[in-house]
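Entry 12.
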Amino acid sequence: MRKLIIAALLLFVTGSAFTQTQKLTISFLTKDTYVYTTWGDPGNGTLFPANGLYLVTGKGVVLFDTPWDSTQFKPLLDSIKQRHHQNVVICIATHFHSDRTAGLTYYRQQAIKTYTSKLTDDLCKEKNEPRADYLLYQDTVFHVGQYAFQTFYPGKGHSPDNLLIWIGEKKILYGGCFIKSTETNSVGNLSDANIGEWIKSVKKTQVRFKDPAFVIPGHQDWTDKNSLTHTLEILENYQSKNGH
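Predicted 3D structure (tokens):
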């Protein structure tokens, strides 16, 4: 009996380690969709979590954004293959910052089709960030396997080029860094942001995608679907205090 208990404990530990390590966490969201989190240094010497999303289809896995941590480019692919017995076939980066684009070159080398908007590509070229093979010139609907999803450019915000992803069948709004987690009251990195336009873009998004079931921000806790409303509150509060 003691040996059976020890074996069961080892099995539990091994299973847990598959979905969560110190550098990579994969969490179930809803059928065929998963949030993955890696950690990077935003420039202050501390590690900060960055969320991505992936969608499992009958024709392969679609990855939204790349890991921030370069040591996790391959482990993410390996984990997806082990769990779902599928390869990643498409990767779409939602803006030009490295917490979204760092893995584009690596994934291109793995024969994964990589996409960004033309605006993102222009900024990646200017900032010497990794670039994608394929460019989006307008909001685009993708059909992969049994699922459809669309990219949406709401206007300037956290960055001039931030894209959103909408998976309509599941009512998932994936916002990347355009959306702030309810875990924070900070506007975060404003190096490429436009607060006034960001507020307008959030309101446009609220009109376009009403009552999403899931709203996934780019950083920190992603379990609260009120993150988009919270983002607007943060931005309007910042604007009222700072006058811009």
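Annotation: The helical segments are 2-19, 73-84, 98-101, 104-109, 118-127, 195-208, 227-242. The CA atoms of residues 148 and 169 lie 8 Å apart.
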